[in-house]
Amino acid sequence: MKPVIDGYKAQGKPFKMGMVFPVSTHNYELRYWLAAGGIHPGYYAPARGDTSGQINADALLSVTPPPQMPATMEAGTISGYCVGEPWNQQAVFKGIGVPVITDYEIWKNNPEKVFGVSSDWAEKYPNTHIRVVKAMIRAAKWLDENNNANRPEAVKILSRSQYVGADYDVIANSMTGTFEYEKGDKREIPDFNVFFRHHATYPYYSDAIWYLTQMRRWGQIAEPKSDEWFMKTAKEVYRPDIYAQAAKALIEDGVMMASEFPDFDKEDGFKPPQSDFIDGVTYDGKHPNDYLKSFKIGLKGDDQI
After folding, report:
1. Is the dihedral of CA 93, 96, 100, 103 positive or negative?
2. What DSSP string describes 250-300?
3. Residues 6+ apart with CB under 8 A from 64
4. Which residues in the chain belong to E strands, given as ranges?
5. Chain segment 187-235, per-residue pLDDT in tens
6. Domain-by-domain residue ranges, the chain?
7. Is pTM beyond 0.90 here?
8. How many CB atoms lie within 10 A of CB 228?
9. Are 257 and 141 in contact (CB under 8 A)?
10. What residues contact 55, with CB distance under 8 A and at least 6 apart?
């Protein structure tokens, strides 16, 4: 990738890429991948009023709505993008681009989507909150059970115009345990989309802290923060206590088993240190500042933009 960008620089041209939103998982995963390859994705400087995220950037990242990404790339406005499915597979089907890497290869079993509500709503409707979480846990299990046997039915639902609206075959390419890197190169990746396996629905504090480290790394969090701050912030947002209430209710209802969930009496909210990143850097959520210091590219310590 770096030789490509160096080639653009030699011609005096910017290398532009699209991502979903400045606080999306796609932004942080794209930045992580670029930085792992020695490419600076740029800094944010909110204190200076610069929210472009392009300060000192080798590659210029900007927001592009997901459904518009294939057409935007086809028009030449961007040269690549990072987005969730089915918009990568859409580019393959249209013959205008190929995926070069998946987030599974950037960070194995990485967290992706979250269900979030405001604290005011949660306090006003506690019973509704628990019931919605119960429903989402059951849906996640349904999507994964019996080796993804229910995925084709899910794809039919998602392909409806009131939902994703993409063609059935495009959505099925990644939802049913496969991924097509280019026409004819379809590979088996049963864990490309995981909804319940590996305790995927559990709100681990360490997942929240990882995203906070990336916000700090790229300047969205402008000031240095203590390890205690990272922990406190994660606990204010991620609520395993609410999740446990929903899970225990499902167990009492007889629709799920205790063995399908973490041991709530022993769980501290932190995954063991993880090394399944593309650059091999180990992440320990209990030591976020040490983690930030391990990167060659990005803010660390008392660094400010």
Report:
1. negative
2. HHHHTSS-GGGS--TTT--S-PPPB--BTT---B-TT-HHHHHHT-SSS--
3. 18, 19, 20, 72, 78, 81
4. 16-19, 43-45, 50-55, 60-63, 80-82, 178-180, 186-188
5. 888 888 999 999 999 999 999 999 999 999 999 999 999 999 999 999 9
6. 2-83, 202-293
7. yes
8. 8
9. no
10. 42, 43, 44, 45, 219, 305
